[in-house]
Amino acid sequence: MIDHPINPVYDSESKILILGSFPSVKSREQGFFYGHVQNRFWSVLAFVFECEVPRTIEEKTAFLLENHIALWDVIKSCDITGSSDSSIKNVVPNDISFIIDNSKVNKIFTNGKKADMLYQKYIESSVKIKAICLPSTSPANAAWSTENLCEYWKSKLKD
Known about the structure:
Blueprint: E1 2-3, E2 16-20, H1 25-30, H2 41-48, H3 57-66, E3 69-73, E4 75-79, E5 89-93, H4 97-101, E6 107-111, H5 113-122, H6 124-127, E7 131-134, H7 146-157
Parallel strand pairs: 2-3, 2-6, 6-7
Antiparallel strand pairs: 1-4, 4-5
Helix pairs in contact: 2-7
């Protein structure tokens, strides 16, 4: 069983919450979300919000808060092989209610189908907010080009 090692990013002005499934090996090593160099999360969000791609943990945190984005994951702990979402078992979900209660979050987005499925299974009924599933920014999601991801995410996050 591996515990989630990264604290959520949010503040009282956060308006949207993006939930992944569980941090990759690289993210766990770095101590921050979407740490794998090939994950397109940060470049997609930079496109959506028309700014430079944040590089450091401090830049990424500031970027999220400046754009009123809260960021965390659905899973508190689980059994996982490497970084493979398909290997996830024995899920213990995170309690996201304190983020909802202490922010202006009224929209929740999930980064990929696994995060969405787990959100629906474990969290949705307690927070009463239906999540919008976005295509995963993972490099394993080869069906979506970076350009298509950018356009789709922008159409959902900026509506």
